[in-house]
Structures are given as structure tokens and as C-alpha cells.
Amino acid sequence: MQIVVNVIVLAALYCLICCGYVLIYRASRVLNLAHGELMTIGGYFLFTVAIGLGNDPVQSFLLAFIFSLALGFIVYFFLMRFMAGESALASVLVTVALGILLRGLITLIWTSQYRHPLQHLGMENSSHQIVEGAVISTFGIAMVISTVLLYLVLFLCFKFTRWGLRMRAVGENPILASQRGISLHMYYALSWGIAAFSVGLAGMIQACDSGLDPDMFVIGLKAFPVVLVGGLDSLGGVIPAAFIVALAEILTIHYISPQASEVAPFVVLISMLLIRPWGLFGTKEELERV
Amino acid sequence: MMKKSLFGIVALASFMALFLTPAFAGDAYLVGFSVAVTGRGSGIYAPVKDAFDIYFKQVNARGGINGHPVKLIIKDNAAEPSKAAAHAKKFVTQDKVILFMNAALSSTYAPMVQVAKRYNVPLFFAGAVCPDAVYPPKADPNLYCSTAFGAKYDSRFAIPFIKNQAKGPLKLGLAAMNIPVSRGEIDFAEELAKGMGIEVAGKVAIPPPTPDYTPFATKLKSAGANWVYAWAPWGCEVKTFEALRKLGWKGKYLAYAHIQAEDDLARLKDDDFYVFGTNAFFADDTEMHKKIRAISVKEKTIYPYTQLTEGWIAAMVLEEILKKTPWPPTPEKVRTAMNQIKVDLEGLKGGPLVWTKGNHFRTVNYYRVYKWDSKKNGIVIVKDWSPLKVE
Predict the structure, then answer these.
(1) What is the nearest CA distance from B351 to chain A, expressed in angstroms?
(2) Statement: residue A121 has pLDDT above 50
(3) B76: β partners
(4) Does the beta-carbon distance from B248 to A111 stay under 8 Å?
(5) For residues B274 and B294, what is the distance between their CA atoms, to the nearest angstrom?
(6) How many Å from the N-terminal Cα to the C-terminal Cα in chain B?
(7) Touching check for A228 and chain B: CB below 8 Å?
(8) Shortest CB distance from B218 goes to which of A6, A107, A114?
(9) Do B215 and A262 count as a contact with CB atoms less than 8 A apart?
(10) What is the pLDDT of residue B26?
(11) Residue A166 sits at the chain B interface (C-beta within 8 Å)
(12) Cβ distance of A10 and B245 shorter than 8 Å
């Protein structure tokens, strides 16, 4: 039973991280390779705010959410906006450079020390027994609930709100959307904002669950196979893909070898690329663009 | 008039920059230091640089060594082999250092070792894992190491300690990070444990970029381990322990005490989390600890004083080497000094650090075990300095 809980928590983490990859790609066709760094910065935002406010988790999380969201907008308006109309490869290379810059800034501002935001939030990461033989931590529960809420809100917004419809239109045909008076930059910026928020949230929960250090960005990159398995432009595809990859990893740890768990996501990815190269729910034409 | 004076100041400054700086450099002990201040794993290495900064500031303020200042050329290699290689070459060919140092991931070693051997200049590892070539009986003439932990030695202390501590049947779990040095040590520990009749219940090698340690902890817990021994980078050791506790595991845990151990013992406040190592904790509050704490506070070091011991020890060793290197210094004279060094570490270790011609690690390793004690609300010594001969 513990294995099932472990799969759910890991899949929830992958869903939170990968949501941003898909949103940015869907809206602007940019593969954001600085996503792991945005995740790490989310954790550091929480850490900094928690020190400033001291023992006030609600306000600390709220402020950190706002900072993460704002960071996404800042990145778009001060950097990625200038890449509009350039080749996809050039944009991807800019995100690589952005990642290097953010990593440097993280070390300069917060140093390389291990940090523990929980100490300053006045909270504990207790264990909760769900059923006999299955335990989950407080922040494991937070991870699952946050993921469910985020995806629910996003699906509802995309389906039933005006901005959701416009965002989809921008992703599907930017020229036509622009001609209809939709501000492309605003919706591109929005996708960056939501992406930075969701991955920042993942970073915050992860930092509370197991600490924070600049190397956390690698986790963001590790989640990348999930996006390709689900389909690069499919938000709905992320959920089953996250479960498949998490299941493969955890079963490998238990029944094959813990060491081999590192390659498990890539075995799933290669299998998917052989059978269905555009991913579970991805669009076939997207493959050429990638 | 104003223009003329400005020109004069610029000319004087240029003259000083051109001629006076090399005069100072020529008069100083020149040492190169390639350290991972940023990049992967820099949390362990950057505090070493911090300690060196404040230590040699004090030394130079006292008038230097043998009447000469020590000039450290410190470069950040970001844990990248290519940068470490470029630093090593620059140190040796341009800066003409008498000795150069490394504190970074082991992937940076090969190019630096190559330069040390090619140009016959000693290379000193401080705070980074000691390469095999420093161990006896035939240590490489150019490679030296003062780092606290030592593969194939630490487990020789740890496994018997666990056996002595265990009450009732012992089922041992082993945790490593999936990197060669950590995996190798845990494989060695497994052999030792089996040789001592200990049942090894489970073993996990955890990949470095792992988002969740719980699945690995689940494997150890479901294997029935009542003691777990971890020898890995600190993040991996402590996260595995925390994951085990989150699963409700009630066993005891022994981990190697890296520089962050003391702070984390105080953070976790768990009576069954034991750490062992070869450096004394600030909880001992010796005169040397008071001194380091005072200087760290005064100089406003980036890293907390509790993480400076490793760098401080390396700096003490370097000072002793330079003291024994007669002026004018050459790599040959430095090597001669390093081959017969004995440094009194004034309570930072269980005994002096001794290097000989064939042993560039240390002749005796002294181990101590600490843990948190809830009753005393502080860190206590579980087992005092225990010597282990390095042969």
C-alpha cells in the first residue's frame, strides 16, 4: 500500500512541475529549459519570506506565490518578449542562458547552504496513516491537493472563461488571434506567469518536505520525460504520463534495483517514442516543430 | 593645473599597479586554490574557501609566515572539470605557484592531477574526497589530502560501532548515493558487516537528483532494518533519515558527519540519529572553537562557523607546510616539508595530522560519535576519540 502512496505523491510532484512546461510550449512554442531554476527560486522565495515574517505560514505562502507569479511575468516582459518571431531554437537557447543566470543569482543571494523553510514557518512535516501500512507526510498531502486544485482550476478556466478561450486561440493560431484583437504578449506573459507559479509551488512544497539547495533545479529537468510521454502540447496528457513514469520509477526501486530507478523514466520515454512519438495525447504535427 | 594633477595620480597608480604588485607577489608564498564556490555540491566546498579567507587574513595581519605574506589565488571552478583544468594550468605556468589546491567534486580531479604530475608541483585536496593515490603504502609524490572522511576507513569504524551499540538481533540497512565513491564505500561496508556476522537486510543506492527519498526509505523499512548506516553526501544521508522517520520507522541511524551535521542534529533533535566523523563539533566548545567562532562573527563569514572546521584544519595544515618551507620556496621544498608534516590541530581532531613519504592521508584517523540528547537538550558525545591506524 505504501508503494501506491509513493506513486501518487511522486506523480503529483511531476504534474505540478510539468504543467508549466506544457503551458509555455502550448502558448508560445518555447521549450523552457530554465524551468528547474524557476522551481528552485520558488523554494527560495518561500524561505526568504518565511524568515521575514516568521511563523506565519499562510502569509508566507501567499507572498511567495505572488513573487513566483510575478517572476514569470518579469521573465517574459524583460527577456522572452524580445524572442517573439525568432526561431524556436533561439528561444530555447535563451532559456538555457536564463537558467545559468538564475543559478548564479541563487548562489549569490542565498549561497549554497542547505536551507529548511519549515524551521521558519513554525510548521511540522508530520506523518499521517491513511490505511494500514501506508503513511503520508503533511507536505505529501499538500502536494496532492495542490495538484488536484491547480489542474481543476486550469481545466475549468480553459473551458469556460474568456481568457482561457483566448489563451487556447493564441496557442493554436497566433496570427489569426492577433488579427482578432487578442494581445499576444499578454497571453504569452500569462502562460509564463502561471508556469512560474505552478513550478514555484512545486519548489515550495518540495523545500518544506525535504529541504532546499541550489541543486534542486535538477529535479525540474528530471521531470522532463513526463512531458514528452504525455505529449508536449497536452496538459491532460501530463496526468497519465506522470503516473506511468512515477509507477515505473517506484516499481524499479522495489523490484529491480534502486540504482536502476534513474533510467526508468527514460525507458518509458524511449518506448513511447518508438510507439507514439508525439506522446499519449500530443498533436501529431507538433513533432515536426520539436 | 587640475588636469595635470589628475594625470599625475593616474600615472602614479599605473606605476604602482605595474611594479609594486609583482614585488609583493614575488615576496609572498603563492598558493593556487581551485574551489567550487558555485555549482553542484558547492555547499560542502564553499565554506572551505570561507575558512581560508579568514584564516590567512589573520596570518598575514600577524606578519605572514617566516616574514613573508601568503598570497592565495582563489578561483571558482563551479565543479566543472574544464574550469579546474584551466585553473591548474594557469596556477603552474603563469602564476608560478609553489603548491595548488582543490576543493570540488571528484570529476575535477583528473585534469588537475595531470598538471600536478606533468609540472611536478604538489596538489593538496582540502575538504573534497581524498583520491586513492594519497593512501599508503605508496602515496603519489605530488598528491596530499587533509579531508576528514576517508573511503575504506570510515566503515571500519562504523560497522563495529553499530555492532556494539545494537541490543538484540541486528538487521542492517545500508544507504549510499549512486556515485562511485559512496557506492564503493557502502559495498565495502556490506562486506565488512557480513564478515562480522551481521545480517544486511537491505541496501539502496539513491540517484543524486532524486525528488523523493520516501520510495528508497520504504525499501529499507520494508526489509526490516533496525539500524541503517549511510555514507554519502550529507543531503542524501539526512534526507534518507527524514524519509524513514516520515514512514514511522523507529530504528537507529548512523551517518558520516559532514560539515552540516552539527546544525542538522540540532534541527532534527532525534535521539536515535547518530553521526560519526573525525572533526570535533562546536558543541565541545574548546578554546579553538571559541577562537573560530569569534573570528567568524567578526569577519562576518558567509557560512556559519559550525561549517568552517574542515577548511580551518586545511588552513592550519597549509600554514604548517609553509612554515617548514625555507625561503625562497620551490615546489621541491614544499614537497619535502609535506612529506614530514605533523600538525597539532588543537582539539579539532583526536590527534595530530601526520603525513609521511608513503602516506599522504594521515597515519592515524581518530573517530568520534555524536548525537542529540533530548534530556540534556543538546549534542552529546556517544563514543569518544577512537584511533584507527591507516596503513
Answers:
(1) 29
(2) yes
(3) B35
(4) no
(5) 28
(6) 74
(7) no
(8) A6
(9) no
(10) 61
(11) no
(12) no
How many A/B residue pairs have CB atoms within 8 Å? 106
3-class DSSP assignment, residue A238:
helix
* Average pLDDT of the residues of chain B: 91
Is there a single domain that holds both residue A145 and residue A279?
no
Answer whether residue B24 is part of any domain. Answer: yes
Q: Tell me: do A70 and A157 sit in the same domain.
A: yes
Q: How many domains does chain B have?
A: 2
User: Does residue B100 share a domain with residue B206?
Assistant: no
Together in a domain, A216 and A246: no
Chain A partners within 8 Å of B206 (Cβ)? 258
Residue B25 has what pLDDT?
52
Collect all residues of chain B within an 8 Å Cβ-Cβ radius of residue A129. 248
Domain that residue B210 falls in: 154-283+367-389
Tell me the three state secondary structure of residue A181: coil
A270-287 pLDDT tens trace: 999 999 888 888 887 655
Average pLDDT, chain A: 91
Q: What are the residues of chain B with a beta carbon less than 8 Å away from any beta carbon of chain A?
A: 37-38, 40-43, 46, 178, 183, 204-216, 218-219, 222, 234-235, 238-239, 242-243, 245-248, 260, 264, 267, 302-304, 307
Q: Which of A220, A252, A273 is the last residue of a domain?
A: A220
CATH of residue B86's domain is 3.40.50.2300
Specify whether B296 is located in the same domain as B351: yes
Whole-angstrom distance, CA of residue A34 vs CA of residue A199: 11
pLDDT number for residue B16: 45
Q: Above 60 in pLDDT, residue B22?
A: no
Contact B245 A127 (CB under 8 A): yes
Smallest CA–CA separation between B112 and chain A, in Å? 24
| Whether residue A285 sits in one domain with residue A144 | no
State percent of chain B over pLDDT 90: 84
Residues spanned by the domain of A275? 223-290
Q: Given this model, what pLDDT does residue B9 score?
A: 47
| pLDDT per residue as tens digits for the range B322-365 | 999 999 999 999 999 999 999 999 999 999 999 999 999 999 99
**Amino acid letter, A36:** G
CA distances to A123, A189, A246 from A239, in Å: 29, 24, 11
B-chain residue closest to A217, CA distance: B209
**ipTM for this model:** 0.87
The nearest alpha carbon in chain A to B45 belongs to A112
Tell me the nearest-neighbour CA distance from B13 into chain A, angstroms.
31
Which of residues A220, A254, A280 is at a domain's end?
Answer: A220
Q: Is the pLDDT of residue A218 over 50?
A: yes
Please indicate, yes or no, whether residues A147 and A102 belong to a single structural domain of this protein: yes
> In this structure, are B382 and B239 located in the same domain?
yes
Residues of B in contact with A111 (CB under 8 A): 46, 302-303
Number of domains in chain A: 2
What's residue B6's pLDDT? Answer: 44
Q: Render pLDDT for B100-117 as a digit per residue (tens, 0 to 9).
A: 999 998 889 999 999 999
Which chain B residues contact residue A109 at CB under 8 A? none
Contact A211 B235 (CB under 8 A): yes
Do residues B252 and B225 lie in contact, with contact meaning Cβ atoms separated by under 8 Å?
no
Residue B1 lies in a domain: no
What is the average pLDDT across A33-40?
95
